[in-house]
């Protein structure tokens, strides 16, 4: 009987691991490295690689610039509505990306609620590279803000008090004590956030569209290449993204283990 | 000379205290929860009183009536925290040099003053060690060296011996008493250990917890001269 239970546990575990590992490993076996290199030289692939690199780096910069103060406020201050804001920050994780894209379009699109206002200011967001970045910020920011909030909350405030009494002002104390001590959480959150931005598909295609060189990021290019029967390019781009994911997951793990 | 007259409504009681602290060590006594640590936080500028005034060597650090508030980073007061609050990501040397870096002293001046503070506390050989690898007694010395390196106008020590094991405590107490015997700034040493009072205190300040409305007498410190 105990043998049967053990066997059942192992079978269940092996099945799920296989379901995750087999398709991913199979992708790498689908093409030779030479095929991948050749497929990545096509204009469609180069455009998508360049666009994804640029937009995800900008999105990550925006997330860090705006998310760090938000995470610090949530970790350190209590104010009316703090719990609501705290929960709201996590919402994009559970909102389906296509729904997020629809919401962005209906808010900031040409015919959206704030469309006329933006148009009057000479700003067009929908179906531009800026929309790609906004979609990525929307879906990816929770990963950084959550991690940073926990990182800041874990810094002993007596250390900051000690820094103040030694003559460092609040900003220098933040830079020399708070940030270095929260650094593992900040870096881990930033990396996960970047990975989520890189994989973003649903909100991007709804809000930014699918224009080669302007809004067609890596995941969109994979979809388009597959639809048009150009399987090698789709697989080559997929291999690039999976390689990034693997580096990120194992990198974050080793960072957490330190 | 350090003077204060402070009033603050805290969560459990109303804090009300006034005293003049001359140069040298004054031991602050009282049961836990009496507001001893809070008094140090007021003086260091880490917490603001509801009303009151603090002066140090003739300089007003806080005066609620005149809206004067000197922030902690500009008070030049050395603080030794109860658990020492050493910066875990820095070496012993960098911890001691921290306050001098804050003052943007020259590299040579910072190095010389750091070296001197390390030498006084006899921890020069630990300069390149991570503080996380030190014993309790060593951490205590680093905390003190860090507070003294800035040549503070006053020194605040919050139960500096309580984190040490009993054997180390005896030894460090004697060393501290010797070190402080010729200190030329006001030093407040918080403790609830009578042995500390015997070792350090030619002067002591008693703080008792209390609600002013209920028992005003106990809320004020009584100054004693031995």
Structural write-up:
The complex is a heterodimer of chains A (258) and B (226). By secondary structure, chain A is mainly alpha-helical. Chain A has a single domain (36-257), classed as MetI-like (MetI-like fold, Orthogonal Bundle), CATH 1.10.3720. Chain A has helices at 2-30, 33-39, 43-76, 82-94, 97-108, 115-120, 129-153, 157-165, 170-199, 202-207, 218-227, 231-257. In chain A, helix 1 (2-30) crosses helix 12, helix 4 (82-94) packs across helix 7 and helix 11 (218-227) runs antiparallel to helix 12. The radius of gyration of chain A is 22 Å and the shape is globular. Chain A starts with a helix and ends with a helix. The mean pLDDT of chain A is 93. Chain B is of the alpha/beta class and 226 residues long. Chain B folds into two domains: 1-76 and 155-226, P-loop containing nucleotide triphosphate hydrolases (Rossmann fold); 88-152, no CATH class. Chain B is built from seven helices and eleven strands. Chain B has helices spanning 36-44, 92-102, 107-120, 136-149, 166-180, 194-200, 212-219, and strands at 2-9, 14-21, 24-29, 51-56, 59-63, 68-69, 77-80, 154-158, 186-190, 203-206, 222-225. In chain B, a hairpin with a 4-residue loop joins strand 5 and strand 6 (68-69). The radius of gyration of chain B is 18 Å and the shape is globular. The two termini of chain B are 19 Å apart. Classes of the chains: A mainly alpha (258), B alpha/beta (226). The A-B interface holds A 156, 158-159, 161-170, 172-173, 177, 180-181 and B 44-46, 71-79, 81, 83, 85, 87-89, 98-99, 102-103, 146, 150.
């Amino acid at each position: 009987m105990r043998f049967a239970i053990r066997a059942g546990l192992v079978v269940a575990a092996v099945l799920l691991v296989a379901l995750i590992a087999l398709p991913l490993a199979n992708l790498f076996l689908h093409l030779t490295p030479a095929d991948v290199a050749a497929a990545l030289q096509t204009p469609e692939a180069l455009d998508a690689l360049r666009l994804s690199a640029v937009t995800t780096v900008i999105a990550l910069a925006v997330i860090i610039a705006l998310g760090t103060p938000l995470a610090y406020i949530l970790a350190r201050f209590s104010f009316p509505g703090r719990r609501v804001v705290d929960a709201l920050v996590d919402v994009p994780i559970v909102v389906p990306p296509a729904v997020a894209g629809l919401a962005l379009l209906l808010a900031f699109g040409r015919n959206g609620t704030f469309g006329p206002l933006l148009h009057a200011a000479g700003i067009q967001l929908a179906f531009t590279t800026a929309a790609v970045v906004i979609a990525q910020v929307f879906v990816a920011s929770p990963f950084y803000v959550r991690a940073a909030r926990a990182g800041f909350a874990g810094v002993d405030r007596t250390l900051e008090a000690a820094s103040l009494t030694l003559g460092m002002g609040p900003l220098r104390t933040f830079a020399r004590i708070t940030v270095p001590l929260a650094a593992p959480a900040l870096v881990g959150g930033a990396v996960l956030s970047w990975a989520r931005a890189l994989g973003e598909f649903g909100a991007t295609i709804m809000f930014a569209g699918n224009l080669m060189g302007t809004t067609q990021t890596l995941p969109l290019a994979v979809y388009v290449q597959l639809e048009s029967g150009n399987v090698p390019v789709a697989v080559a781009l997929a291999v690039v993204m999976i390689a990034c994911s693997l580096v990120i997951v194992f990198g974050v793990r080793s960072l957490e283990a330190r | 000379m350090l003077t204060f007259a402070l009033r603050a409504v805290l969560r459990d009681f109303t804090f009300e205290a006034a005293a003049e602290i001359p140069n040298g060590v004054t031991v602050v006594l009282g049961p836990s929860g009496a507001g001893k640590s809070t008094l140090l936080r007021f003086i260091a500028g880490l917490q603001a009183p509801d009303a009151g005034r603090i002066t140090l060597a003739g300089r007003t650090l806080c005066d609620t009536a005149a809206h004067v508030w000197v922030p902690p980073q500009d008070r030049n007061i050395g603080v030794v925290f109860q658990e020492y609050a050493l910066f875990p990501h820095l070496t012993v040397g960098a911890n001691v040099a921290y306050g001098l870096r804050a003052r943007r002293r020259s590299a040579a001046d910072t190095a010389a003053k750091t070296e001197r503070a390390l030498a006084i506390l006899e921890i020069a050989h630990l300069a390149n060690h991570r503080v996380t690898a030190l014993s309790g007694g060593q951490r205590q010395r680093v905390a003190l060296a860090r507070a003294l390196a800035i040549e503070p106008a006053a020194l605040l020590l919050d139960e500096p011996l309580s984190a040490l094991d009993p054997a180390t405590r005896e030894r460090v107490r004697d060393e501290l008493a010797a070190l402080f015997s010729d200190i030329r700034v006001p030093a407040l040493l918080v403790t609830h250990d009578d042995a500390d009072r015997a070792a350090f205190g030619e002067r002591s300040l008693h703080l008792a917890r209390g609600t002013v409305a209920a028992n005003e007498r106990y809320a004020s410190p009584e100054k004693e001269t031995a």
